[in-house]
Description:
Layout: H1 2-18, E1 22-31, E2 38-47, E3 50-55, E4 65-68, E5 73-76, E6 78-83, H2 122-127, E7 130-135, H3 153-157, E8 170-178, E9 187-197, H4 199-205, H5 210-229, H6 231-235, H7 246-256, E10 262-266, H8 269-282, E11 286-290, H9 298-304, E12 308-311, H10 329-336, E13 340-343, H11 353-361, H12 368-373, H13 377-382, E14 400-403, E15 414-419, E16 422-423, H14 429-437
Parallel strand pairs: 1-4, 1-5, 6-7, 9-10, 10-11, 11-12, 12-13
Antiparallel strand pairs: 1-2, 2-3, 5-14, 7-8, 8-9, 14-15, 15-16
Amino acid sequence: MRNALFAAAAALLIAGPAAAETVAIVNARIETVGKAGSIPSGTLVIKDGRIAAVGADVKVPEGARIVDAKGGVVTPGLISPSTNLTVTEVDLLKETRDDGSGTQLSAGFDISYGINPASALIPLARQGGVTRVVVTPLLSGGGDGEADEGYTAADLTGGGGGGKGDPRLFGGQAAIVKLDAGDNDPLVKARVAVVLDLGQAGAQNAGGSRGASLVLVRAALQDARDFNRNRAAYDRGGTREFGLSRVDLEALVPVTQGKVPLLIRVHRASDIRQALKLATDEKIKIIIEGAEEGWMVAPELAAAGVAVIIDTEADLPDQFETLGSRLDNAARLQSAGVLVVIAGSRDFNNLRQARFNAGMSVPYGLTWQQALAAVTLNPAKAWGMADKVGSLDVGKEADVVIWSGDPLDTQSWPTAVFIGGAQQPMTSRSQELRDRYDQPDNGYPVQYRN
């Protein structure tokens, strides 16, 4: 127990002063995903929490702490583009799930209030090289104990939510979280998007029809505009009746102003076209999540400048709306000029799948550099963080990972992780429990020692 408490205390202390020190990572193959490109052997310098220098001929500053990468690969920290990490502990235990609002709220549900910085699952994500996540509500369900394991239409249609009363039109608002050890306020930015299901799941929420869901969405956006123009009249009861509560309308106002995007979960090609038409007609920004048939409408997505979050291993037609799923979806989207963001499973235990999915996209048409960008710089661009993180450019916050080998290979793992320049502890609760009980002289019978 003492060892576990000591490790926890050390984790709390490491992020503070360590972020202000100067660190030089040497003997590294550096994949900057930025202006400097790939550096076969070089040095990266971190100072005051930011990247101070990177290159093949960079000199180690006097007094810097030297970290020898031993020929390993250095990359930006991975960014999970849509997950329930920090708001869910046990998928099948509803008391531990804060990723759904039930039937009380729609767009107004703010997931950031449920973030748990002490989650035992955060260290697991860091051990997979993940340094930041976008925490998103589960729309069609979420919070009732059903499993939430991926981006397929089946996963996003089942599970979650209250399950009683009228279905919610919108899922709520997403947030960006930094996974810095010991940070009691890891929220980077709240209310970065409002989540919406279209397609089959949206039809369910609207009573069974895709057409009904789009009518309701358009009506809700118009309500938000009218509410914003007539707030004083609304307060004195002098407006027409609106279909959403004041809290929900308030959340949609930034969407109608183009300040906050809709994260639209949609899968079928025809539904993606409807999402693009919605964005054009309503003059709003959108991000697409799912898009198993995205390759069919790739030129249209590119022309609209819409980022797409996909699971590159989604190739089974497990729903009618995913009949066109294929393994080269990412490559076809990339070739058309779409900003491709690769994800794995939404659930907290499997965030490592994103980099494996990125690796699997290479044999199906992406270049290795494009695949790495799809889990680093591209999610940063999609979520408005590219000026701060996502690449190893001088001046950016030092979210840096040192890998034992190819970061897109299942046999490689991080040997060191830095978030905002602070080196992170590479332990987790599971490892601490292992160390606690794996003692040859702990007094337990021999059958319990292994």
